[in-house]
Every structure is written in C-alpha cells, then in structure tokens.
Amino acid sequence: QVQLVESGGGLVQAGDSLRLSCAASGRAFSPYAMGWFRQAPGKDREFVAAISRSGVSTTNNADSVKGRFACSRDNVKNTVYLQMNSLKPEDTAVYYCAARRTLDFTITYSSGYDYWGQGTQVTVSS
What we know:
Shape: globular
Number of helices: 1
C-alpha cells in the first residue's frame, strides 16, 4: 500500500506559477511510476503529466500543458512535483497524483494507476 498526499494548491492569478508536491509513504517510492491528473467541475479526470521511476523520462498532455507544466521527482524525499507556469483559468481543477508499480511511465488513463492522493485544489483567476 502506498499513501499519497498532495499539497501546494491555492488561488492564483492568470500567468502565475505554482508547484504541487505529492509525498509518498508506506512503501519504497522508487519502483513506482507517478502521474498527475486533474478534474474540473463537471468534467472527466484528465491526464496531465507522468514521470518514470528514475525521474529521467517524463511525458505530458501536450494539448493542454506542453511548455508550461513539468513533472519531476526526488526519490530520496519520496516526493513528486508538478511545476506549473503561465497558469490559465482553464487550469482550474482539483489536481491528483497517482502511482503505479511499473516501468511504463506513459500511462495516460486513470484506471492504469493503483494508488491516488486526495487531491489539491488549484484555482486560477482571470
């Protein structure tokens, strides 16, 4: 069992930056590929970004966040991060981190992950 706790959300203005953190506990962190998803009111949960177990490789939702969001991890601190720059009002959502024990870090569907955090709210005002 892996427990995930997100933090770092908040209310910001368009163009601002935020860094979300997701702290993992319960089991060794490094065997898990990590993903970030978001869900806006009335919408389906959407893939945002993912990172490989080593942190060397990442992927993201190019249509929505390419060039603005970046995923990283620190396997010593058991934490994965989502750096969000140039935020837009349409980025407003609850952001979730997720974990799956796999080499494949390119999983973009939510059912592909085994463990989830409780989410952190990000609100971007115009």
